[in-house]
Structure formats: C-alpha cells, structure tokens
Design goal:
The complex is a heterotrimer of chains A (431), B (309) and C (395).
Chain A lengths: L12 H9 L10 H4 L7 H23 L1 H4 L10 H13 L2 H11 L6 H25 L20 H28 L13 H42 L14 H27 L6 H29 L10 H22 L1 H4 L2 H25 L14 H24 L13
Helix pairs in contact in A: 1-8, 3-15, 5-7, 5-14, 5-15, 6-7, 6-9, 6-10, 7-8, 7-10, 7-15, 8-9, 9-10, 10-11, 10-14, 11-12, 12-14
Chain B lengths: L3 H28 L8 E6 L8 H10 L28 E5 L9 E5 L8 H5 L5 E3 L5 E3 L9 H5 L6 E2 L9 E2 L5 H6 L5 H5 L5 E5 H14 L19 E4 L17 H13 L3 H19 L1 H15 L1
Parallel strand pairs in B: 1-9
Antiparallel strand pairs in B: 1-8, 2-3, 4-5, 6-7
Chain C lengths: L5 H27 L10 H10 L45 E3 L6 E6 L1 H11 L18 H4 L14 H17 L8 E3 L27 E5 L7 E5 H7 L4 H5 L20 H4 L1 H4 L8 E2 L8 H5 L13 H4 L12 H4 L15 E3 L8 H4 L26 E3 L3
Antiparallel strand pairs in C: 1-2, 2-3, 4-5, 5-6, 7-8
Chain lengths: 431, 309, 395
C-alpha cells in the first residue's frame, strides 16, 4: 500500500493527466482511492454521518412543519443562523476558490497549483451548500427560479446582485471543475448493463468539453474572480440598507469594501486551513513549501482590511462603543484581536510561519475571525428596534447547520476519493 | 481678462457642476420610482387618538383577520405591553405613559408607513414588493420567494411573516387598503372607523398642508415636526404629536432613505457593468503580462522562497 | 491669450447662463415665498380685525390658499381657531336633551343630556367651551349644519360630523372619566334601532342618559338583627313594574357623579323602600344571609305556575300602598266563571261537545279546583284517567 499509484488503472492516468488539466499544472493529481493508504470510512466519518442524518431529519421537519417549527426566527429577527452561518459565512469561507485561482492562474505563480484544486473543490461544494442553505431558509423555495427570470429582476436589490452572481459563479465553478471530471473519466467511462451504450457518446462529450475548455478555461477563471469580487462585496451591501438595526461598530457604507478585503484574506487562510486538515486526515505530509509563502501574503491583506476598518471606525467616531460592556463590544474585540491582529503577527514571524502548528493556528484564527465578523454583522450586531431579547438559535437550527457542514465534509472527502484533487505524494516531505 | 488658467478653472467647475447635476438626474432615473403628485396618504394626529382601538377592529374586518367582537376593543389591558403589528394584526395601538408634568398618555397607532422610497421595495429580490405611484407599498405573494430581506431592511420593523406556514408563507403588513383607496374611491378601513378623525386620509400634499396648519395654529399642542415629511426619505403615513417621536419608539432616520445608499453602491458599481468589466479587464491584462513574464517571475519566486527557507 | 478664442468665450457665456438662471430663479422664488400678512394696511385685514377683535397672524387663518382673490377667496368655512361666536344664549334656553342618531351604524344613538352639559360648561366658559361658531344673530347652528355626514377626502379643512362629535365629547371625557369605551355614551345597536326612543325623563324625573343598572345589590348593614339586605333591582323593574322615577325621583346627582366614589351609595331606604313596603317588620329585608330573587312559589307557598306567570302583581294584590293578600281558591278571584263564560281551553283541556255545556261542579266537586276532578256524578264506571272529556294540549 506504499505505492502511491494504485495498480489497476495506473497506466492510463499519468499520460492523460497533464494534457487534461490543460493549464500547465506541474503536479500530477490522482483520486485518493487510487493513491490508496487511507480508507474512506473512519470513526470520524461515522460521527459526521450521524450528524448528517440528524441534519436531514431537521431538514424534513422544516419542509413539513415550516420554518417557524424548527427555528427561533420571528418578525424581529427574520434572519438567523442559516443566513448568518450557512450563507454569509459559507460564501466568505469559499473565497479560497477565486483567491488561489487568481494567484496561480492569473498571476501565474505556478508553485501554488497544487492547492488550486482542493480550493476549487471547497468553493464548488461550499457554494453548492450556500445555495442549498438559501433554499432551506426561503419561505417559498419553489419560487427561487424567479431570480433568473427577467420579469422579476429587481436591480436595486443587493440581494438580487448576490443571488445572480452566486448563480453564475456556481455555474462557472462547475465549468472550472469540468477538466478534473474529464481527466478522471475520459477513456474510463464504464457504465454497467444497458447503460453501457452511453459510454461512447458520454466519452465523446467529455472529450469535446475538454477540448473546448482547454482554450477557454482562462476566461472562466477570470470570470470567477470578477463574479467573486462582485458578490463578496454585495454580501456586505446587504446590511447597508439597515442603518437603524445594525450595530454602529459594523454599520458602515463601506461594509462591501470591508467584506471584499476580508474575503481576500480569508480565502488564502481557508486554503491553508483546509490543506493542513486534509493532510492530517488523509495522513499526508503537510505542504509547507506552498503554504508557508501563501501565509506570507495574508498579513498584507489583513493589514489593508484592518486599515479600512480602523479608518472607518475612527472616521465615524464610534470607537467608544467598543469600550461599553456589551456583547457586541466583546465579540468586536475577539474579531479584531483574535481574527486580525494576532494572526498578522504570527504570519509575519518567519519562524512561526514555517511550523505547521503555528501556521494552522494563524489560519484558523483568520477563518474564525472572518466567520465571526459575518456572524457579528448578520446576527450579533443585528439589533432590532423592538422585540424581546436577543435571538438565540433553536437547537434544530444548530443541528441543521452542523448537519450541512458534516455533509459538506463528507462530500468533500468522497470527491477527493473519486476525483484527482490531491497531488501524488512524493516531491515534498516537510512533515 | 480671463487668463487661460482661470478659464480652465471656471470651465472645469462648470463642467463639474454639469456632471454632478447630470449624475443627479441619472440617480433619480436609476432609482426608478415615479410618484404621482396626487398620491395618497394618511395623517395621524397622535394628540387626537383616544386609544379606542376601533381601527384595529376595522383593519381585521377589512382584511379577514381574526379579532374579537367590537366590544373586545374596550379591553385596555393590552396597553400593559408594547405590541407590534404581526401577521394576524396589521395595525396596533400602543399607549405611552404621560411624560413628567403631564397627565396625558399618548396612544400611538403602529402600521406600515408606506415610505416614499421604501427600503423593503429596494431590498426585494424579485420585485414582489412595489411602490405604487399613488402611494401604497403593495405585495405580490405569487412573486415572493420568502427571503425576508424586506423585514431586515424595513427601518420601522413592520413586515411580518407566516413562519408556521410550510407551503405558502406570506409577508404581511398594512396594505393602505389598496382596493378601497385606489379602486373603490374610499378611505382605508381604519381611517373610516376612527371616531375622532385622529386619522385623516387624503392627498399627501394636502395632508402636509393640514399638518402644517395645525402645528402653526396650535404651537402649544404640537411639536413642529411632521414625522414622515422627510424622515427616512418621506412616508405616505404622516404623524404629528405633542412630544418627540423618539419617545414613542419611532426611529431617528436621516432625510434620505437608506435605500439610496445601497442603490448608490449598486448602481455605482454595476452601472452598465463598468465595474465588473473594469475588474475583468484589469485581471485579464494582469494575467497576460504576468504570463509573459512567467518564466522570469517563477525563477525569481523560487529563488526568493529558497532564500527564505 | 491668443488661444482664448471667440468660440470658447461663447461657450463660457452659455455655461454661465445655464448655471446662473436657475440660481436667480431660486433666489426670486425664495424671496416671495411667505405666508405672513404682507400688507398691514390691507382693508380686508382691518375689517377682519374689527370683526374678530383679534390681531390676525396670517392670511391662512381665514384663507385656505396662499393667494386669495376676490373671485376665489378660498375662505375657511367655520374657522375653528378664530372667534366667530356672538351668542348670548342662556343655559335655560338650550335644548334639554339631544338624541344623536343620524349616524347610527355599528353603535346605537346617543342620548346627549345637552342642558346638563351646558350647566357644567357654564362653570368653565359658557357655550363657547364647545360651540365655536354662531351666526351674527346669535343663533348657534347644530354641528351637522357645517359638518357633513360623509367624510371629504378633498377638503380636509374640517372634520366630518362623526369626527366633530367625538372630538367634542372625548377630549373632556378622557380628562374627566378616563373612559373611552363606546358603550359609555352609545346604546348598543339593535335591529329595530329607530323604534327605540327611550323615555329619558323616566330616570330621575329630568332627562338623563340611559343607565345600565346592576341586577342585584347586596348590602352589609350595621343593623344587628339581620345585617344582610338583598335588593333585587331587576325584580323591582322587570317583575314589579317599577319605573326609575318611582324610587329615584329627586335623587342626588352626587350619589352617582362623585369622582371619588368607590362604591355606590345606597338610597335612603326609609324614604325609597318604605314608600312601598311600609314600616313593617325590619326582618322583611334584613336577613342573616343573601336572598335569592323573588320567587312567588317559594316565598308564599303558592306557585304562579302555570296560569299566573307574568301577570301584573297589582291584579291580585292591589296597589302597593293597599297591599292585600288574596284567597288562594280560584273562585275567590275568578267569580265570573260561574256564568259559564270560562274558556276551559286555557287550562290545556279543550272540552269536547258532550261536556262543553256541563257545569263546573259536575266534575270539580265543591268547586275545589286543586283536587282531582271526578266523573262519578254523571258516569257509573270511572272514566278518568283512561278517558278524558276532551282534547288535552300539554303545556
């Protein structure tokens, strides 16, 4: 089992791979199932499956009995955990897809290619679950297609912009992922029984798509970057419409800019974060030679973000609010110190950046910090004018979110096993 | 004589003014709502309201909402807490205790204000909420996808939601009795019911005149502020009172609707897709130039990281 | 300087004009916009001052529009805020009672004790406390003369009749009684609304709005022998047919209209109760426990069921002051029955043709109607109860 390339189909792949990936990857990626070493089912996976099952039960309850039956949402708090975490935080944390693609494919920093695929997968799955999360939260989910029909378009709505961009970006992500599907299945489609007749045509379609994408993939990658910038910022615009409700520590007309800047930083941090987790989970060496220089970029992005925040806070004269003994002030400081300032220092120190533990801690802090920022903007900092007490998510609400994250993780694991996402081990051995 | 530099200055400032005014025109067009000069509204004189709650009853009758019989309005115990309109009651009357040095409590009717530039309409992703040029903010349940962004956006926290309906939940709020007011030429049910004419229905412009007139004639009775004339960009529902409106839980709003800010951002970035196209162009050029230097940069990068390691 | 060509100069001028014209227009507009009296020596102004005796603040006090003309003076109809009241009417000349019923829809009419209110207003400021308009002659028109029944959505200068009434009443009533329940003034609407014209003079002898009385009062008196007195107000009105004035004539206003009252003060029972009951045995009213409503069967042992319910007490007992206790035999009252004029059907038994002409005593031995009738006087074998002399109609 030490052989990284599994016996049966090893012959076809290395020949296929470089050609199919199309944009000059140095690394050779293989499905984890073919790389061997780790079993799909582990105790951790079993636990995740349990959470996933509970989540699906809550999901069923939501569709049978309505949103009111499983959430603590009311007329004062129309948006809760599902929008704050599943959607807003989900979009932010899926930013790794476009940031790494930008660095690797637009800036042609070729050494980062090996984290592009995992980040792309995270983005694709992340956005898929963002879309699912939206569907669950929508009262009339069956009308969601209205967003795509010109008759209903409402260009003044920031949410419309977010919805449109997410729809198109999701499509772009699937297109970006197509080369990986091609790489995996061209010449290897083998449907059983009567479906076998489709093998030939499907293979032809894949080859056609591969050829088309070979020339156009750059366009889609740039599209992805543009769309991401657009909706990452528009997600911030959403709350600009509620000046009387959003706490002054977060309410600012430049909220979209802050959302975009933090998305840049968290995209890279998320790439580091998940690479380290995946390496640990799949018992692979940490890819420090890639992650460490990636980490070097984060403090600059975070500093710009922090500057945009600080200047804005001083400019609006609301910093004294951060000294009041409120929950909002507390979460504000956690977000700023834990999520921005501390990681800046850790990333800046060369010695720490090279050590997986510290790198992981710093990346995790940025990820949690930006996640907390989204939660602050959408939940904790949201102070309705009336109503009794703060919104606390109901247990089923939490269970559904945990269930969704579990399913997301499981699908990620399955995809890594099925598709050539992770590079074949060998070159690096820093662990 | 005007020197060349001065000329450039002047023409520059003139051009700037022209551009600014042009931009202003465009913004007005872009916000896309045209309002009739004859649009309707309601003036609430809080000092006239006696808290009889007959408007609540009339509203329930008109909209087919559950409510006790007429006499149940006499139940004053509801004033013990501050109520909010919800999906079963589009309007409620709250009683605010008399301020110090007065024995007059103030009864305050709460309902959708039908803003002139409504944030809920601006927020609505599918245009289910619309601002009728004649005043009312209308809702089309068949278009709604149930995202509840309107509820987040509303500065008065009015729209209510049928959270317990699993299939066809609706966003519910005062309709300004659109059918009665715009089609049947009647006044809204609550206004018609109001025994004291604390509610007056008419053209918004006339109501503003009426309110100004009352304030001018009774400076001791009213504070010189018509809530909704400008607040939040203006509202169809106007209020006058004997105390500051913040004392009766109306929010302090700027004279511009918050929708103007988001629409400004939206249209600023997305007008003719210039923003996205610029980013697209920038990224493309960057990608191309970096691609040209790829080899060199790559080598440099390798060397640098080598130094670091 | 050479490059400063003529075309550029023209361009500059055009731009300046474009820029300046709106500015000038704006300035001109703001200069003239004013709703204050412009001409202090305005002849109309002088006339108005003499008429009203007040210094006018603004044209808008009387004119609806900012620029009234002779053709269209756009006058405010009944100026609420300026003195237009010349009446010297005395309270005694005013109507005693006004029944406001022209708007009845959800609520019944209001019996408005006008003179009573006028008397109260006399203490405050006379008719002008409520009435804000009279004709030069001093005639005070009723509210409905100016205030329309239909609400006007175009001319908002004056409230409609409903609003005018309620504003007039409720402002004081809220201050005074803190009462905003509609039933305080309105009668409940019924199907035959117009048929109800309550006799408001019945209540205290002078017009008074209808009062909803408590059905039963239970008094805990300091009387040692039987401290509990139960007074069934509804029995006295519904059963004994007493009118309000029978007991309440000349009643003191403050007995009810006392702002500080915590509970109703009882009437002086020596005058009110004893006028009917006489000064008999105290224990007639004073008991050790509360008494149930009057029930003839229980109290006297002689049930009114089924023939005597709903009859006026005085038919048997005479007037209250000459109360008598009648015999309980039927013939002690129904003396004319022996004339054969009795319609037996009222007992529920319609006699058949064979028995219709029989004498009462043929069946009712010794005219004792309380014991079972007999057939033995005519028939050999007993017929009752198998055979009955007619058709039974059960009650």
């Amino acid at each position: 089992m030490n052989n990284p390339i599994n016996g049966s189909s090893a012959g076809a792949l290395p020949l296929n791979a470089p050609e199919a990936t199309g944009h000059g990857d140095h690394e050779v990626c293989l499905p984890l199932a073919e790389q061997g070493r780790v079993p799909f089912i582990t105790p951790g996976v079993m636990v995740l499956m349990g959470f996933a099952a509970i989540g699906l039960l809550v999901l069923a309850a939501r569709f049978i009995f309505g949103i009111g039956a499983v959430t603590n949402l009311d007329n004062q708090y129309p948006w809760g955990l599902w929008i704050g975490i599943d959607v807003a935080t989900g979009v932010a944390l899926a930013a790794g897809g476009f940031t790494t693609a930008f660095i690797a494919h637009v800036l042609h920093q070729n050494r980062y290619h090996e984290i592009v695929r995992p980040a792309l997968l995270t983005a694709m799955l992340g956005y898929t679950f963002v879309a699912l999360g939206v569907v669950v939260d929508l009262g009339r989910y069956y009308n969601i297609w209205h967003v795509l029909v010109p008759k209903y378009w409402q260009g003044n709505s920031a949410l419309f912009e977010v919805g449109m961009c997410v729809c198109i970006y999701l499509t772009v992500l699937y297109i970006e992922f197509l080369p990986i599907v091609c790489e995996r299945f061209i010449g290897r489609i083998n449907l059983p029984g009567p479906l076998g007749a489709l093998n030939g045509p499907l293979d032809k379609i894949l080859r056609l798509a591969d050829a088309a994408l070979n020339k156009t993939i750059t366009f889609f990658i740039i599209m992805g970057v543009v769309l991401s910038c657009a909706h990452q910022s528009s997600l911030g615009t959403l709350m600009v419409i509620a000046p009387t409700k959003l706490h002054a520590l977060w309410y600012t007309p430049i909220l979209p800019l802050q959302f975009l800047l933090s998305a840049f930083a968290v995209g890279l941090a998320m790439a580091i974060f998940e690479s380290l987790i995946a390496s640990r989970s799949f018992k692979r060496p940490f890819e420090m030679s890639v992650l460490s220089p990636l980490g070097r970029m984060i403090p600059f992005l975070l500093t710009i973000y922090f500057a945009a925040k600080l200047i804005d806070l001083v400019n609006r004269g609301v910093l004294p609010l951060a000294l009041e003994p409120t929950l909002q002030a507390a979460t504000f400081w956690i977000e700023i110190i834990g999520g921005v300032l501390l990681p800046i220092f850790i990333f800046l120190i060369h010695g720490l950046r090279r050590r997986p533990g510290w790198l992981f801690a710093a990346a995790a802090m940025v990820v949690l910090g930006v996640a907390l920022n989204r939660v602050n903007v959408f939940i904790i900092g949201y102070k309705p004018l009336f109503g009794d007490g703060p919104y606390v998510p109901a247990i089923p609400e939490v269970l559904l979110t945990i269930g969704f994250i579990s399913i997301l993780t499981l699908v990620y694991r399955a995809w890594v096993f099925i598709f050539p996402i992770l590079p074949v081990e060998g070159g690096h051995d820093n662990a | 004589m005007v020197s060349r530099r001065d000329f450039m200055k002047i023409s520059g400032s003139v051009a700037g003014t022209a551009a600014a005014s042009l931009a202003g025109v465009q913004t007005a067009c872009a916000s896309g709502h045209h309002l009739e000069p004859d649009r309707i509204g309601v003036l609430t004189d809080y000092t006239e309201c006696i808290g009889c709650r007959r408007c609540e009853w009339a509203c329930a009758q008109e909209n087919g909402l559950p409510f006790g019989d007429l006499e149940s309005c006499d139940d004053q115990s509801v004033f013990q807490e501050m109520r909010r309109p919800d999906e079963r009651q589009y309007t409620v009357v709250n009683r605010y205790p008399a301020p110090e040095g007065s024995d007059k409590p103030l009864d305050v009717k709460v309902n959708c204000m039908h803003c002139e530039h409504p944030t809920c309409v601006s927020a609505c992703i599918v245009g289910a909420l619309k601002k009728d040029p004649m005043g009312p903010v209308t809702y089309d349940a068949s278009a709604c996808i149930g995202c509840r962004y309107c509820m987040v956006a509303c500065p008065f926290q009015i729209p209510a939601y049928e959270y317990h309906d699993p299939l066809t939940p609706k966003v519910l709020k005062c309709t300004l009795c659109t059918e009665r007011t715009l089609e049947e030429n009647k006044m809204p049910a609550c206004v018609e019911m109001c025994p004291k004419e604390a509610l007056t229905f008419g053209r918004r412009e006339d109501l503003l005149d009426l309110a100004r007139d009352r304030i001018r004639r009774n400076p001791d009775r009213y504070l010189p502020h018509i809530f909704g004339e400008y607040d939040g960009g203006g509202t169809s529902w106007l209020m006058i009172a004997d105390r500051d409106f913040t004392e009766v839980d109306l929010p302090e709003l700027s004279d511009r609707s918050a929708a103007e800010i988001t629409e400004g951002i939206q249209h600023g970035i997305f007008r003719g897709f210039t923003g996205p196209l610029m980013v697209f162009g920038l990224v493309s050029i960057l990608g191309k130039s970096m691609g040209d230097q790829e080899g060199r940069l790559d080598q440099e990068g390798q060397r640098k990281e080598g130094d670091n390691e | 300087m050479r490059s400063f060509s003529a075309t550029r100069l023209i361009l500059l001028m055009v731009m300046l004009i474009i820029f300046l014209v709106p500015l000038a227009a704006f300035g001109a507009a703001s200069g003239t916009a004013s709703d204050q009296v412009v001409d202090k020596d305005h002849p109309q102004d002088k006339m108005h001052q003499e008429e009203t005796g007040r210094k006018l603040q603004s044209c808008l006090d009387c004119h609806k529009c900012k620029r009234p003309t002779r053709k269209d003076p756009c006058l405010v109809a009944c100026p609420r805020y300026e003195s237009h009241f010349f009446s010297q009417q005395q309270v005694e000349e005013s109507p005693e009672i006004i029944i406001i019923d022209q708007l009845s829809e959800l609520y019944g009419s209001v019996v408005f004790a006008h003179r009573l209110h006028a008397e109260m207003a006399e203490m405050a400021g006379g008719c002008e406390t409520c009435h804000h308009y009279s004709e030069q002659s001093g005639v005070i028109p009723p509210c409905r003369e100016c205030h329309d029944e239909e609400r006007n959505v175009v001319d908002l200068s004056k409230p409609a009749l409903k609003g005018a009434y309620h504003r007039q009443c409720m402002n004081c009533h809220l201050d005074w009684s803190h009462e905003n329940a509609c039933g305080f003034c309105h009668e409940q609407a019924t199907d035959e609304l117009s048929a109800v014209t309550p006799d408001t003079t019945d209540i205290v002898g002078i017009p008074h709005p209808i009062i909803a009385a408590t059905p039963t009062y239970t008094y805990n008196t300091p009387h040692e022998d039987g401290p509990i007195v139960t007074f069934h107000h509804n029995d006295h009105v519904d059963m004994f047919g007493q009118k309000c004035v029978d007991c309440h004539r000349g009643d003191s206003c403050s007995r009810c209209h006392d702002a500080d009252r915590e509970e109703a003060k009882p009437l002086n029972h020596i005058t009110s109760c004893c006028s009917c009951h006489g000064k008999r045995d105290c224990t007639f009213c004073h008991k050790d426990e509360a008494m149930p409503n009057f029930e003839h069967g229980l109290s006297t042992g002689w049930s009114l069921e089924p023939y005597h319910t709903g009859k006026d007490c005085t038919l048997c007992h005479g007037k209250p002051d000459s109360f008598r206790k009648p015999e309980t035999t039927c013939t002690s009252c129904h003396i004319h029955w022996e004339d054969g004029a009795f319609n037996h059907a009222v007992t529920g038994l319609t006699l058949d043709d064979d028995h219709i002409d029989s004498d009462c005593v043929d069946c009712h031995v010794k005219l004792e109607f309380t014991i079972t009738p007999t057939c033995d006087n005519c028939h050999d074998e007993p017929m009752l109860p198998e055979k009955i002399p007619g058709r039974l109609k059960l009650h």
